[in-house]
Specification:
The chain has 17 helices and eight strands. By secondary structure, it is an alpha/beta fold. The chain has one domain. Strand 3, helix 6 and strand 4 form a beta-alpha-beta unit.
Length: 385
């Protein structure tokens, strides 16, 4: 727990340092929501495995802790650092076109919790993962007042009106802020939809946790109304894994795995009763923090699910090999040791054979010295081997 507490304290400290700068933009909104955002950060420290985030990364993302719609590229543990993008175009420029997995977290909606969840997924797929920050704005605060933490799966009808209020209050313009939607959904939903609709990007794994499953579902349903061909292309290759809440996905997606903990009553409240869980994790509740008992091990569970999908695992391995290793020349495939070198060792030469070899060498040297300079024998090129 020490590493979890240290990461939380460092993020809170760094967040406090950036408060004066954030108050210069929408001071009333930021002052009203900062206390709730700090509370949500503490919730994410309980529900997510934040100890997998390094101190440098925690400091880096602290300023964008509640930036709804921000996109991060999270590599596996021990790899490169987290990269934060404010728009879809910036995400592509930072290497997003090479990312094949997309994750969306829930609970408090902080960037720290989202990064921790994405790192658990990245450790499972052994590759970078894109994650969209759910954030926490006025719409979330009002929804929470109506029981949003316990009934987020049933209060989506309020979002159109509340999102408009959040925009009027001066919400930062990140993610897919300027993109219209068939229904006025959350900014995180619109950003996920923009990522899935972009022809430059290609995902073969979508993973959500808790409220993040609702974001994925809403984005896919909206995209199916606007770009049926794009949805059909995704449905042929994409695997969806929902953790902690069973939410209906568009009918075109048949490769969906719903994961629930056997003790997760919180997730059951927000799940659709007509959807059965495909995998029940024993002795697991709603949280994924491996420092606490009753956690749902995201990395181990995803590895088991992906192992049962050999086509997806093979495609990911091939893509990682293509991206990290240049094409080798044909000679590289040949054995480093020639067959002749591994044959039986030659017997040692006798004294008589050595004398004969020296005598033959001396005779050859005498014949060579008799060749006149400029003769055809001297100018003749050496014979090829």
């Amino acid at each position: 727990m020490f590493q979890t507490a240290f990461t939380l304290s460092l993020t809170q400290f760094a967040r406090t340092l950036s408060l004066p700068e954030r108050l210069q933009r929408s001071p009333a909104r930021n002052l009203a929501l900062e206390g709730l955002r700090q509370r949500n950060l503490a919730l994410d420290a309980l529900f997510y495995d934040i100890k997998v985030i390094t101190p440098e990364e925690a400091f880096y993302i602290s300023d964008s802790l509640a930036a709804e719609g921000a996109i991060m590229i999270v590599p596996p543990s021990g790899g490169a650092a987290i990269r934060l993008s404010e728009t879809v175009d910036e995400f592509v420029l930072r290497g997003g076109d090479k990312v094949r997995a997309l994750a969306v977290a829930g609970i408090g909606g902080s960037a720290l919790g989202a990064a921790a969840f994405a790192r658990n997924v990245a450790d499972a797929v052994q590759g970078p993962v894109a994650v969209v920050v759910s954030g926490y704005g006025i719409a979330d605060a009002i929804t929470e007042a109506f029981g949003g933490h316990f009934f987020f799966g049933h209060l989506r009808g309020l979002r159109p009106f509340l999102e408009t209020l959040d925009d009027l209050a001066g919400r930062p313009k990140v993610g897919a802020y300027g993109k219209a939607s068939a229904s006025r959904t959350s900014l995180a939903t619109r950003t996920v939809q923009a990522l899935l609709a972009d022809e430059r990007l290609s995902f073969d794994l979508l993973v959500g946790h808790s409220k993040g499953n609702l974001v994925l579902s809403a984005a896919l349903h909206d995209l199916s109304k606007q770009a049926a061909a794009r949805i059909a292309a995704h449905a042929a290759t994409v695997k969806i894994v929902t953790i902690g809440a069973r939410i209906a996905m568009p009918p075109a997606f048949t490769d969906v795995v719903d994961v629930m903990g056997t003790w997760d009553w919180f997730g059951e409240i927000n799940s659709r009763p007509f959807i059965d869980a495909d995998r029940r994790v024993p002795h697991a509740w709603h949280h994924t923090n491996t420092d606490l008992n009753g956690h749902l091990p995201v990395t181990a569970t995803l590895k088991e699910i992906l192992a049962a999908s050999p086509s997806l695992a093979k495609r990911q391995v091939e893509e990682r090999g293509t991206e990290t290793s240049p094409e080798l020349p044909a000679t590289a495939a040949e054995p480093a040791v020639s067959p002749s070198s591994i044959g039986p060792k030659p017997r040692p030469a006798t004294i008589e054979e050595v004398k004969q070899a020296f005598a033959a060498g001396a005779g050859a040297a005498a014949n060579t010295s008799q060749i006149e300079s400029g003769s055809p024998e001297e100018l003749q090129p050496p014979q090829p081997h």
